[in-house]
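User: I'm preparing a small set of examples for a lab meeting where we compare how different chains pack in three dimensions. I only have the primary sequence for this one, and I'd like the structure in C-alpha cell form so I can line it up with the others. Please keep the answer compact; I'll paste it straight into my notes.
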Amino acid sequence: METIPNCPICHSEHTYQDGDFFICPECAHEWDPKEAATLTDSLQVKDSNGNLLADGDDIILIKDLKLKGSSSVLKKGAKAKGIRLVEGDHEIDCKIDNMKIMLKACFVKKA
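Assistant: Understood. Below is the C-alpha cell output for the 111-residue chain.
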C-alpha cells in the first residue's frame, strides 16, 4: 500500500489524495507529488520585507550590527553583492567591507 506524504508547507499528516494531486485540509495546500521533490529541496529564505532571496542577490543591512568578538560595527546601509544562501541559523553567507560574514535574513533587505 502506498503511503501518503505529509504536507510540505505545514507538515500535517492529515493529507489525502485527489486524482494526481495531494491535498492538505489544514492549510489548503495542493501539490503534485512529482514536483514536490523540487519544492522541498530548495532553500527558501525571506528578507525583512518578505521578499524571497536567492543565490547571487544583492542585499542591504537595515540596522547597525556589532560583530561578536570584535569592536567593529557593520553600519546600516552597508551593501553585500552576490550572496550565498546556506542552511542553519544564519542563512546568508556574504562579504561586507572585505570581511566574510554570515547574517540572519531578518537584518537585511533585498537591494
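A couple of notes for your slides: The helical segments are 33-41. The two ends are 49 Å apart (CA to CA).

User: Perfect, thanks.
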